[in-house]
Amino acid sequence: MIYTKMTKKALKLCFxxxxxxxxxxxxxxxxHPFHLAEQMTDEVTTVVALLHDVVEDSDITFxxxxxxxxxxxxxxxxxxxxxxxxxxxYMDYVAKIKGNPIAxxxxxxxxxxxxxxxxLDVIDQKALTRRKNYLDAIMLLEGK
Length: 144
Description:
Layout (H helix, E strand, L loop, with lengths): L4 H14 L12 H9 L3 H9 L10 H6 L4 H10 L8 H8 L3 H14 L10 H18 L2
Helix pairs in contact: 1-3, 2-3, 2-7, 3-5, 3-7, 6-8, 7-8
């Protein structure tokens, strides 16, 4: 983990938003953004990894994040990563991410973590379908 003033602010916000949430196996959800952040190599991608689900999973807005002092490159990447409008097809959403290297780095880490079926207690058809969609998204982002 990269520890700077901004990453510490993102860590605290991430924890505050996700501390009561659990993932599909009942594990604390906050482990997921922490896991992604550990893989990042600079301050901006670390902040984006920590905050990648904050707007989607809370009442916090992009304007709130701007007021907190997060820079434009962070906000721009987060806007691409936030998939609130479910009328936008998943692969169209992913295709838009491809144009932003920060969002792409975080989304690839997110997808790789989400395709790890060992995280799940039950692997059903829904999980297998979701994994296939995520693998297709990885291929799109990697240009394969």
